[in-house]
């Protein structure tokens, strides 16, 4: 990845529809100049706290404060080692804080981090918050869940399709804080390609929005619009937990940039060479001789043996041939950057991120039901703006302009969700006071607590092309 390569990002954390306080937290730390970027890169962090009252909120806040601060101080370490040490330091601080108060004992938090720098993308991870990447209409899960369900699947004790039905998915096996030491997963580094989109999120999102839907939304919408739509969907489908989303999109490589600018050039894979060609010719000759013996002579046993040997030998040679590894899947070794060896990295799960009309019809159905409630219950929203967005979405869908349709449906949902949130606040006030509430919404736009942090581009303005 290049310093001049712009990125767009947005982040949004929402309390959800059933929680009283938000135990999630996130932070974005951008390198302010080229020198900082060369040594540290850009860091994105999501944490999902666990514990009653304010305990989980404190743990997640300590994680998003400690990880970037510690990472920035460890200039003498390789970025991957610094990332791992930062999460271990956060674990130690949360554990020590919990030991000071019986009410805070065994408090904890998940923590998933994304580092974008000269070497590419790297991830430090503990818990069941997730990191995804969308590339070429495919979404890859870059982290594995440290949860009971995933552990049982990996041990082949339960089939993936039955796991969520048989076991609670919210039981995690690893987190920051409960124990004095923690095992941190570090993934990568992985090459960053132009147009790659990365998603960090808490399980309040992935409980209600599946991988394919995640991929369709974050690949088609700008980061700030995608954040809002993802949170809206999770809330409308239940919203039983806090929801936190960070989306990062990599821009094009600057014109004129050279491969030599990369600190760790991608090694080329080996080809089969003349040896493989000669082997295949030998097996072909044996197969021809065996076939002729079978067809033209009485030595059918010998002919059959030669033919079988040729087929088996060719199959083994083909299977063991050197694979041509895609460039984006070849990365520098994890520990020794001076060697020429490579690490072949593969995602934990993949799904299609191709936008489908079926998904858009599902969004349209949700939007129509919400619109019906807005009309019936007289929500104070700008229905004219909603009607215009919905009409454009329907026209785009009919014309197979799926990206435009998704964007207009998202705009329509933005308008209606303002009314739904206002309605919920009114009901909560009535429940507390026993009297009908008469407040009116302060705005017909997404409120500040539900608006993503402004979409930003890096490098800073002085380095924009």
What is the fold's blueprint, element by element?
Layout: E1 7-14, E2 24-29, H1 34-39, E3 42-50, H2 55-73, H3 79-99, E4 108-117, E5 120-126, E6 130-135, E7 138-141, H4 148-154, H5 160-166, E8 185-190, E9 197-201, H6 203-206, H7 211-220, H8 223-236, E10 243-250, H9 273-296, H10 300-319, E11 330-331, E12 343-344, E13 349-352, H11 357-376, H12 383-398, H13 402-433, E14 456-458
Antiparallel strand pairs: 1-10, 1-14, 2-3, 3-4, 4-5, 5-8, 6-7, 6-9, 7-13, 9-10, 11-12
Helix pairs in contact: 2-3, 7-8, 8-13, 9-10, 11-13, 12-13
CATH classification class of the largest domain: Alpha Beta
CATH topology call of the largest domain = Phosphatase 2c, domain 1
What is the domain total for the residues? Answer: 3
Distance from first to last alpha carbon: 16 Å
Separate helix tally: 13
Report the C-alpha radius of gyration, rounded. Answer: 27 Å
CATH architecture of the largest domain, by name, is 4-Layer Sandwich
- How would you classify the helix and strand content by structural class? alpha+beta
H/E topology pattern: EEHEHHEEEEHHEEHHHEHHEEEHHHE
């Amino acid at each position: 990845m290049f310093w001049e390569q712009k990125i767009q990002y947005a982040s949004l954390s929402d309390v959800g529809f059933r929680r009283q306080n938000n135990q999630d937290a996130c932070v974005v730390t951008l390198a302010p100049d080229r020198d900082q970027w060369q040594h540290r890169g850009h860091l994105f962090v999501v944490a999902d706290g666990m514990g009653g009252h304010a305990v989980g909120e404190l743990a997640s806040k300590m994680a998003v404060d400690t990880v970037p601060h510690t990472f920035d101080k460890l200039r003498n370490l390789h970025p991957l080692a610094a990332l791992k040490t930062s999460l271990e330091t956060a674990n130690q601080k949360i554990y020590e804080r919990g030991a000071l108060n019986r009410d805070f004992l065994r408090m904890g938090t998940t923590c998933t981090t994304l580092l974008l720098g000269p070497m590419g993308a790297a991830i430090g991870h503990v818990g069941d918050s997730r990191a995804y990447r969308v590339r070429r209409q495919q979404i890859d899960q870059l982290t594995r869940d440290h949860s009971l369900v995933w552990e049982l699947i990996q041990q082949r004790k339960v089939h993936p399709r039955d796991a969520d039905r048989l076991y609670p998915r919210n039981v995690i096996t690893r987190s920051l804080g409960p124990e004095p030491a923690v095992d941190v997963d570090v993934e990568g580094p992985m090459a960053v390609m132009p147009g790659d989109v990365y998603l960090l999120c808490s399980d309040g999102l992935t409980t209600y929005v599946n991988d394919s839907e995640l991929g369709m939304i974050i690949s088609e919408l700008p980061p700030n619009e995608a954040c809002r739509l993802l949170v809206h969907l999770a809330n409308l489908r239940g919203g039983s937990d806090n929801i936190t989303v960070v989306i990062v999109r990599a821009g094009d490589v600057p014109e004129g940039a050279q491969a030599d600018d990369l600190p760790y050039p991608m090694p080329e894979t080996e080809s089969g060479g003349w040896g493989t060609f000669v082997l295949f010719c030998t097996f072909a000759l044996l197969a021809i001789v065996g076939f002729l013996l079978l067809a033209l002579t009485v030595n059918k046993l010998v002919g059959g043996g030669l033919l079988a040997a040729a087929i088996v030998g060719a199959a083994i040679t083909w299977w063991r041939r050197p694979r041509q590894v895609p460039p984006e899947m070849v990365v520098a070794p994890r520990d020794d950057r001076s060697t020429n060896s490579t690490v072949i990295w593969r995602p934990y799960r993949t799904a299609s991120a191709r936008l489908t009309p079926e998904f858009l019809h599902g969004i349209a159905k949700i939007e129509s039901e919400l619109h019906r409630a807005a009309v019936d219950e007289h929500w104070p929203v700008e229905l004219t703006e909603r009607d215009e967005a919905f009409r454009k979405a329907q026209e785009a869908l009919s014309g197979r302009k799926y990206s435009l349709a998704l964007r207009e449906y998202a705009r329509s949902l933005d308008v209606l969700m303002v009314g739904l949130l206002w309605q919920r606040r009114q009901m909560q006030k009535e429940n507390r006071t026993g009297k009908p509430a008469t407040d009116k919404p302060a705005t017909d736009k997404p409120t500040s607590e539900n608006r993503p942090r402004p979409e930003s581009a890096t490098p800073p303005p002085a380095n924009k092309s």
